[in-house]
# Entry
Amino acid sequence: ERTGEPEVVLATGKTPAQCAEAVAALHGGSSPVLVTRADAEHAAAVRGVVPDADYDEAARLVVVPAGEQRAGTPGTVAVATGGTGDLPVARECAGVLGAFGVEVRMVTDVGVTGVHRTLAAARTLTDTDVVVAVAGMEGTLPTVLAGLVSQPVVAVPTSVGYGASFGGVAALLTMLSSCAPGVSVVNIDNGFGAAMVARRILRTRGGAG
Amino acid sequence: ERTGEPEVVLATGKTPAQCAEAVAALHGGSSPVLVTRADAEHAAAVRGVVPDADYDEAARLVVVPAGEQRAGTPGTVAVATGGTGDLPVARECAGVLGAFGVEVRMVTDVGVTGVHRTLAAARTLTDTDVVVAVAGMEGTLPTVLAGLVSQPVVAVPTSVGYGASFGGVAALLTMLSSCAPGVSVVNIDNGFGAAMVARRILRTRGGAG
Amino acid sequence: ERTGEPEVVLATGKTPAQCAEAVAALHGGSSPVLVTRADAEHAAAVRGVVPDADYDEAARLVVVPAGEQRAGTPGTVAVATGGTGDLPVARECAGVLGAFGVEVRMVTDVGVTGVHRTLAAARTLTDTDVVVAVAGMEGTLPTVLAGLVSQPVVAVPTSVGYGASFGGVAALLTMLSSCAPGVSVVNIDNGFGAAMVARRILRTRGGAG
Amino acid sequence: ERTGEPEVVLATGKTPAQCAEAVAALHGGSSPVLVTRADAEHAAAVRGVVPDADYDEAARLVVVPAGEQRAGTPGTVAVATGGTGDLPVARECAGVLGAFGVEVRMVTDVGVTGVHRTLAAARTLTDTDVVVAVAGMEGTLPTVLAGLVSQPVVAVPTSVGYGASFGGVAALLTMLSSCAPGVSVVNIDNGFGAAMVARRILRTRGGAG
Amino acid sequence: ERTGEPEVVLATGKTPAQCAEAVAALHGGSSPVLVTRADAEHAAAVRGVVPDADYDEAARLVVVPAGEQRAGTPGTVAVATGGTGDLPVARECAGVLGAFGVEVRMVTDVGVTGVHRTLAAARTLTDTDVVVAVAGMEGTLPTVLAGLVSQPVVAVPTSVGYGASFGGVAALLTMLSSCAPGVSVVNIDNGFGAAMVARRILRTRGGAG
Amino acid sequence: ERTGEPEVVLATGKTPAQCAEAVAALHGGSSPVLVTRADAEHAAAVRGVVPDADYDEAARLVVVPAGEQRAGTPGTVAVATGGTGDLPVARECAGVLGAFGVEVRMVTDVGVTGVHRTLAAARTLTDTDVVVAVAGMEGTLPTVLAGLVSQPVVAVPTSVGYGASFGGVAALLTMLSSCAPGVSVVNIDNGFGAAMVARRILRTRGGAG
Amino acid sequence: ERTGEPEVVLATGKTPAQCAEAVAALHGGSSPVLVTRADAEHAAAVRGVVPDADYDEAARLVVVPAGEQRAGTPGTVAVATGGTGDLPVARECAGVLGAFGVEVRMVTDVGVTGVHRTLAAARTLTDTDVVVAVAGMEGTLPTVLAGLVSQPVVAVPTSVGYGASFGGVAALLTMLSSCAPGVSVVNIDNGFGAAMVARRILRTRGGAG
Amino acid sequence: ERTGEPEVVLATGKTPAQCAEAVAALHGGSSPVLVTRADAEHAAAVRGVVPDADYDEAARLVVVPAGEQRAGTPGTVAVATGGTGDLPVARECAGVLGAFGVEVRMVTDVGVTGVHRTLAAARTLTDTDVVVAVAGMEGTLPTVLAGLVSQPVVAVPTSVGYGASFGGVAALLTMLSSCAPGVSVVNIDNGFGAAMVARRILRTRGGAG
Ligand SMILES: Nc1ncnc2c1ncn2[C@@H]1O[C@H](COP(=O)(O)O)[C@@H](O)[C@H]1O
Ligand SMILES: Nc1ncnc2c1ncn2[C@@H]1O[C@H](COP(=O)(O)O)[C@@H](O)[C@H]1O
Ligand SMILES: Nc1ncnc2c1ncn2[C@@H]1O[C@H](COP(=O)(O)O)[C@@H](O)[C@H]1O
Ligand SMILES: Nc1ncnc2c1ncn2[C@@H]1O[C@H](COP(=O)(O)O)[C@@H](O)[C@H]1O
Ligand SMILES: [Mg+2]
Ligand SMILES: [Mg+2]
Ligand SMILES: [Mg+2]
Ligand SMILES: [Mg+2]
Ligand SMILES: [Mg+2]
Ligand SMILES: [Mg+2]
Ligand SMILES: [Mg+2]
Ligand SMILES: [Mg+2]
# Structure
C-alpha cells in the first residue's frame, strides 16, 4: 500500500463472524490490522482467528500486530482529554498509535472549566511533537491548548454531553470556529482518525513509520 | 409596570417615523425608553421628537432618559468581550445598564486564545456583582471565566465569525453545553437581554432599581 | 476551589463502579458531591462507598453531603414547572439546591395553556429571590412568568414532547427568543445547571454559600 | 373552480410586467385576484392593467375585486398580533379576508410578555368565529389564546426576531409543539394562507362564500 | 373549563401508576379523560381505576367517558390516510373525535402515488364538514385533497418513512409549504391535536359540543 | 473526453472577464460550451469572445455551439413545471438539452393543487422518453407524475417559496422521500444537472449523443 | 397498473401478521410482490402464506414472484459499493432488479480512498446500461464513477458511518452537490428506489418489462 | 508570543479605519501582521499606515511584513484546489504561508470529476511536506488525495456551490466523514487556518519558524 496505512475494519453493522473473516483475509502482512468500534463478541471472534490480537474494551479497539515487525514511528504524541467521559475516544487514539510503535503521553481530565489544570498540563507538553485534544460538551480544550503550545493540535470532538451538545455537534462547531491557530479537526469520536493524522505528521519529520 | 422594566422599541423592520412615533407615545414616564438596532436614520427621527435622546452608533442604541429621575440600581456589572468584533454587542449591554444607573466595567479583547490575558482579566473582576461575557466564533470566554470567578455569568453569543460559526450558533451551543457552573445564556447578539438579566440579579441584592 | 462549587459526576456513559470510585476520591471535603443522571445501579454502587448518600430516583440525583457542614446559602428559589412531565428536571434542580441548604418552593403544573393557573402561581412567588421555570413542549412558561414577576428567571427547557419539539429544541428556541426581560437559559434538561446559576445569584446578596 | 378559491399571484421572483400580465389574464371572473408579496412597482404595473386594484403597501398585497360581485362570507375573524412588527402579516391576512367580504377584527400588540393585555384581548373575542393569532420571536400568543377562547385558532409564525428566532423557525416550532387544544399552523409569514383557512372554516357554517 | 376541552394525560415518560393516579383525579366530571401514547401497561393500570375505560392499542389511546353524558358535537369529520402505516395516527384522531360523539368517516390508503384513488376518495368526501389528512413520507395527500374539496383540511404529518423523511420533518415541511388553500398543520403524529382542531371547527357551526 | 460531456462554466463568483477567458480557452472543440448562472454582463463578455453565443436571460444560460456539428441525441424529453416561478430552472434544463440537439417538450404550470391539470398533462407525455419534473414550494409534482407515467422521472426541486420551504429544502425532501417509483433527484435549482441525466438516459437507447 | 410497477409492502412499523395479510391480498397477479425492510419474523409470516417466497436476510427483502411469468427486462445494471458496510443496500437493489429478470453485476468495495480500485472497477462497467453507486460515510463513489463512465449513474447514499455522517446526510449532500454530470440521487438506504429508477431507464431502450 | 503566531485582524465587520488603527498598533514586531477578508478600502486604509503592506485582492489578504526579518520556515506545502472557484481560499492560504517564508506549490483545478487529472496531480506532490486540499461543492478532493499521498492532508471546505451545498456544509461533512486516513479539517473558507496548521506541521520537522 503506497501510503503505508493500516488495514481497518469498522465493526459497526458487521457480525462478529464478518469481522473475523475480514481480519483473517487481511492479517499477516506488513501492516497491523485494526478493528474499531468492536464489542466483546467482535473481539472474541477475531481472537478465534488470530489468538494474539489485543483488545481494549474501553477503547473498543482490536489490534492485530503486523506479520513482519517494523521499527516504530519516532516521535511523541500527547493525547489530552477534557473529562473522564472522553477517555474511550482518547484510548482508541492511543491504541492505534501504539500499534505503530508511536510513543503516547496521556494527560486526562484537564478541561478548561478548571483552567489552571489546563495550564499546568500545557507546561508538561513542550517536548511532544503533536497534541491530540479530545473534548466533548462545549469542546473548548483544543482552542485553549493551541494558544499555549506551538505544536499542531488535532482536535477530536466527542459525543459526551446532552441537550444542546447534539451528540458532539456543539464540540465540533466550537473546534471548527476556533480562532486559535494550528487547530484542525477530525470527525466526532474519531480517535482512530486523529491517530492517523498524528502519525502522518510525525512522518514529515523523517520517521520510518 | 409591575416588573419595573424599560419600554423598548426594536427598530429592525420599522421605519424611522414608526420608531419616532413609538417613542413619542412612551417617553416621559418613570422608565427610560430604549430603541435597539437603530441606525443613524432611526436615531435622527427619534431625536426629532426627544432632542436629548442619546445615540451610540456602534451599539445601535438610542436611550431616552426617564421623565422622573430615579436612583440608579446599586452594584457593578463587568462586561467582558472575547474580541474586538464583539464590541457592538457589549456596548449595547453597557448602554442599557447605564440607562438604569448601573455601574459598568468594560474588559475587552480577553478571549481564550490568549488565555493568560483571560486570567489577568478574571483577577480584576472580583469586586463586581455580575459578569456578562460576550463572545463570538467558538464562544468559549464564559466557560473559562465561570471557572475563575464566583459571580453569576451571563453569556452572550455573538454572530461574529463565518462558516461553521453559523451566525452565532456555534457560540450559542458552546455556551449552553458548557460544563462550567453558574453560566446562563441569552439570545445571539442580545446585549440588551443580558443587561436586563444582570439588572434583575442586582435587584435581588435589595437594590432600588 | 476558588469558586466554591460542588464536585459533580455525570453518570451517563460511566459504569456504577466508575461512579463509586469517583465519589470515593472526591467526598469528605468542604463541598457536597453530586452524581447526576444516576440510575438505581449507580446509586447502589455509590452507597456501597458512602452509605449516607441520598438518592432521588425521579431526579436521578445522588447527593453526598459535605464532610464539614456549612451554613446554607440564605434565600429562596422558586422552581415552577409547566407540566407533570417536567418534574424530574425540576427535582434535579431542587435536590441540588437542597444540597447547599437553599430553601426551595416547588410550584408544579402551571403551564400557560391554563394561564389563569400561571397567574395564580405568579402571585405566590413575590417573596422568593430567584425563579427557575422548567417547561417542555413549546416552553412558554418562563416568558409569561417573567412578565409577571420581577426576579431573575432561569429558564430550563426539557425534552418532554414529540415531533416538532425535537427533544427540547423547540422549548430552547422559545426561551432564547423570548422578548420578556430577565430570562436567561440553561441547557435542555439541565436542572443541575439552573441550580448552580440560582445559587450564584443568591450569593450576590451577600450569602455565605 | 370547484373549491371557490381566489386566483393568486406570488410576486416574489416575478417582474412587475409578469405580474401585470398574469393579472390581466385572470381578472374579471367570479373570484377576486390577489397579488401577494407585491412591492410598489408590482402594484403600479398591475394598476396599469386594472386601475381599480387596491394596494396595501404594508401588507404588500394587491386586491383586484371579482368581476361579478358576490355576497360576502358571513362571520367574523379576529386577527391578533403579538407585537407591532407582526402587523404586515396580519394586514395581509385581513386584506385577503376583506376581499371576500369577511368581517375582520384586528387586535394588535397583545403578546404574552404583557399577559394581562392578552387576557383582556381574549375577553373581547368571544363573539368572533375564528381567531388568527400572528406572532414572531418566541411565538407564544396562539398557545395562550387557545387556552382562553373556544374557537379554532389559526397560528401564523412570523419572521420577526433575530438570532435563535431563525427567521421564524422558533415561532413555528412553538406553535406546532403547543399542547393547547385547537391550534393549527400555517407557513411562516403566511397571512394569506391563514385567511384561506379561516374562510373555509366560516363556510362550514353554511356561508355563501 | 371555559374552553370545554377534555382532560388529557400524555403517557410518554410516565409510569402506569402515575397515569392511573392522574386519571383517578380527573375522571367523573363533564369531560372525557384521554390518555395518549399509552401502551398496554398504561391501559391496564388505568382500567384498574376506571374499569369501563376504552383502549385502542393501535391508536395507543385510552378513553374514559365523561361522568355526565352530553350530546355529541354534530357534524362529520373525514379522516384520510396516505398509507397503511399512517393508520395509528388516524385512529388516535378518530378515537378522540369519537369520545366527543363526533361522526368520523375513515378513508384509508389513498396516497397520491395512486392519484386516481385519491380523486375517487375526494368525491366521497363532499358531504363531510372537515377533512383531516394524515400522511407520512413525502406527505402530499393534504395538498392534493385541498385542491379537490372545499372544506378546511387539517394536515397531520406522520413519522412513517426513513432517511430524508427525517422522522416526519419532510412531510411537515411539505404541508407547511403547500400552495393549496385551506390547509393548516398540526405536530408530527399528533392525531389528538387534529381532532381537537376539527372539533372546534364543528362548534363554529353552532354545535353543542 | 471519454464521457462526452460539455464544458461548463459556473458564472457565480466569477467576473465577466473570467468567464470570457474560460470560454475562450474551451470553445471550438467537439462539445458545446455552457455558462450557467450567467447574468447579462457575463453574457456580454462571452459574446465579446464568441459572437454567436446564445444567451437566455431567464435561464441565465449561455450556449456556445460545438465547433464541429454533431447529430443530435435522438429522443424527446418532457420538462414539466409546477408553477410559473419554476420556469427559469426549466428553461436552463431545456436550453442545455437543446445544445445537444435533444427535442424538448415544455409543459408548464401543472402543479398538483390543480390536480386535474396535472392529469391532463400526464396524458400528453406518453410518447416522450424521459420526464423532468421541476417544482418548488412543497415539490409534489414529480411524485404525482411518477404514478401516472412509466418513464424515468428526474425531479428538480427549486428554491421558489418562503418560510418552511427553506430555499428549496422542503421540495428536495419531498422528492427524496417520495414513495412513487422511478423518481431520482438532482440538486436544488439544478436544471443543468437534470438535463445531463436525461441525456445519459437517452443515450442508453443507442443514441449518437 | 398503468405504470407496470410491483406491489411493495414496507415492513417497518408493521407486525409479521400485517405483512402476511398484505401479501396474501396482493400476490398472484402479473407483478411480483416485494416486502422491504423485513426481518426474519416478517419473512416467516409471509412464507406461511406464500411458501415459495424468497428471503434475503442481509437485504431484508422478501420477493414473491408474479403469478404469471413475464419476460425479464433486457439490459444490465451494475451495482457498485464503496465499502462492505454498504452491501445490504446494494443487495436490496439487486434483489429487486432480479425480481424483474434484470441482469445485475455487483462490484463491491471500490470506494475512492483506494482510487486505483475505483478506476479498475470503472473499466469493467463499459458494457452495462445503468450504474447504481452505493456509498456511505462521505459518499464520493458516484461522483468519481460518473467522471469515468458514460451511463446514467443512480446514487444511493447509505447510513453507514458515524458523527458528521449524520445517518447518511453527509453522503446525500455529497451526491446532490456533485458537479459530475449524469448523477441523480434517491433516498438514504433506498436500494429499492434505485432499482425502480434503473428499471425505468432500461425500459426507455424498448425493453418489455 | 510563546507560540510564535502572527498578529491577525479579521476585517469583516470592521471599518477601514478600525483595521488601519489595529495594524498601526501591531506592526513592527517580530511577526508579520495579516488582515484577512479585507476589501480594497480596508487595504487602502492599511497602506495609509504601512505603505509597503502587500494586498492580494483575490485572496482578500493584506500582509504587513515583520519588522525584523526572520529565516523562513523550511519545507514545501502543496495547495491543491478542486475548481477555479476555490482559488480565492487557496490564495489566502498561500499568501499567509508566503508571509512566513514557506515555499508553496499551487496545483489548481484537479477536482475528482476528472479523476485522471487528480491522479496526475498527486504524482507531482511526492516531494512536498504537507498537502492542503481546497474544495467546494461536494468537497471530495482531500479524500481522494489522501489515498494517493502519504503526507498529512489539511482539508479546506469552501462555500462554492448552491442548493444542497449549503454554503460549504456539504463539503465540510464530506471531509469530516471521510474514511481516508490522514485528513483533518478546518473551517469553511478558512485558508488562513489551513496555513497556520501547515506551518505548525512544518515546525515539527525542526524548522526555525
Ligand atoms: N480569517 C480568519 N479566520 C479565523 N480566525 C481569524 C481570521 N482572521 C482573524 N482571525 C482571528 O480572529 C481573532 C480576531 O478577532 P478580533 O479581535 O475581533 O479582530 C484573532 O484571534 C485572529 O487570530
Ligand atoms: N398526544 C398529545 N399531543 C399533544 N399534547 C398532548 C398530548 N397528550 C397530552 N397532551 C397535552 O400535554 C399536557 C400534559 O402534560 P403533562 O402535565 O406532562 O401530562 C396537557 O396540556 C395535554 O393537553
Ligand atoms: N423501501 C421502500 N422505500 C420507499 N418506498 C417504499 C419502500 N417499501 C415500500 N414503499 C412504498 O411505500 C408505500 C407503502 O406504504 P404503506 O401503505 O404504509 O405500506 C407504497 O407506495 C410502496 O411503494
Ligand atoms: N473508526 C473509524 N472511523 C473512520 N473510518 C473508519 C473507522 N474504522 C474503519 N474505517 C474505515 O472505513 C472503511 C471500512 O469500511 P468497510 O469496508 O465498510 O469496513 C475503511 O476505509 C476504513 O479505513
Ligand atoms: Mg471539555
Ligand atoms: Mg471568543
Ligand atoms: Mg409548558
Ligand atoms: Mg409574541
Ligand atoms: Mg402519502
Ligand atoms: Mg409545485
Ligand atoms: Mg465510500
Ligand atoms: Mg471539488
Q: What stands out?
A: The first helix of chain E runs from residue 16 to 26.
